[in-house]
Amino acid sequence: MTTPDPADPAEGTGPAASSAATGPRGGGASVARRVPDLAGMELLVAVARLGSLGRAARELGISQPAASGRMRGLERQLGVALVRRSTGGSALTESGALVTEWARRVLEAAEDFDAGARALRGQRDSRLRVAASLTVAEYLLPGWLTALHGRHPGTAVSLAAGNSVVVARQVTAGEADLGFVEGLDVPAALDAAVIGHDRLLVVVAPGHPWAARRRPLPAAELAATPLLLREEGSGTRQVLDAALAPHGGPAVPLLELASTTAVKSAAVGGAGPAVLSELAVADELSAHRLAVVPVAGLDLSRALRAVWPAGHRPAGPARDLLTLTRRPAPRR
């Protein structure tokens, strides 16, 4: 609890003070300034139980001068004497005994509050809901989640994979604690951090005419060619659409598929050119099942972002997962 400022002797009189005391039971917005902090009440209860300010200070782990200053501040704030000090110890005044009973109830309520808050943290730390775009879900998250399991072996992790628009919607609706997207835009309801970078590649089967080109493909020719593409709403589609916008945008897709694996399989089978993440086609390029087609004057790089509800920084396992994403992206 934040320690309130000692009461100002000038406060508490006049119309302004009356106005400030409005609200439920006369509390109003200034109740935190009028009610002593927990540390002062804890000291008072300890003095009542031990009969000595010095013994109370030792039990609470503070110096006797600090305890004396805290008690004087408590008395000044309340405007009444609470303790009579003598060489034989400390005794409560009549007002002090009454305030001590109130303080005990406040401290019990604070203990209940703390226990409830710890229970909530325990619930939060026992599960983690992640939503991720398909490229991140398939090629990056498995490694991150394995590392996270080492830190939080008791945390149950659920993963929902979808395109970037769907992921943003799930995080905004509170259906996921942390999301990962590949698109260009982040909704205003979300905060985001760049966790890495990726680039899209134009790929074809080795038997496709483009595989034998000696010069980069003109961007206008790519725009005019029906392609194997992910669906609208995917980060891959957003980046490609933006890059080809100066050339009239991409042609009507040859096939529009809802998964990276499906697009890749169609490309390997020779159905036509595809645009896919470098992460997704690394194995196929190494095995020469696909070939890269360079494109002149076209930037297909993109940022990979973690997203979460605006104003609510990830905590617990979600925070640790976000930290793990800052490691270099693994290459397959």
UniProtKB/TrEMBL annotation:
Residue spans of biased composition, Low complexity class: 9-23
GO terms assigned for molecular function: DNA-binding transcription factor activity; transcription cis-regulatory region binding
InterPro entries: LysR_HTH_N, LysR_subst-bd, WH-like_DNA-bd_sf, WH_DNA-bd_sf
UniProt xrefs under Pfam families: HTH_1, LysR_substrate
Keyword Signal on entry: no
Upper taxonomic lineage: Bacteria, Bacillati, Actinomycetota, Actinomycetes, Kitasatosporales
Residue intervals of the HTH lysR-type domain: 36-93
Assigned protein family: Belongs to the LysR transcriptional regulatory family.
Protein name: Transcriptional regulator
Annotated spans, Disordered: 1-31
Organism: Actinacidiphila paucisporea
PROSITE patterns to which the protein is assigned, alphabetical: HTH_LYSR
Keywords in alphabetical order: DNA-binding, Transcription, Transcription regulation
